[in-house]
Amino acid sequence: MAPSTVTSSQQPTPPQPNLAFRRLRGQRSPAEFAAAVRRAAREIGERVSCDARYVGRVEAGEIRCPNYAYERVFLHMFPGRTLADLGFAPRSSVRGRRARATDETQGVSEPYDTYDGQDPHNPHDPHDPHDPHQNRRQDDENYENHEESDVLRRLFMTGGGATLAAASLGPLVSAPDAAAAQRPHRRVGASEVGVLEQAVRRIRLLDDRHGADGLYRRAAAPLRAAYALLDAGATRQATADRLHSGAGELAISVGWLAHDSGRFDDARSHYAEALATARMTGDDALEAHAFCNTAFLARDAGRPREAVRAAQAAQRVARSLGSPRLLSLLALREAGGWAGLADRTACEQALARAQALYERGSSDADPEWMTFYGEAELEGLEAQCWSTLGDWPRAARHARRAAHLQDPHFKRNIALYTAELTDDLARGGRPDEAAAAGMRVLDLLGEVQSSRIQSMLAGTARVLLPHRRASGVSAFLERHASRPRTT
Question: Average pLDDT of 179-190?
Answer without folding.
Answer: 47
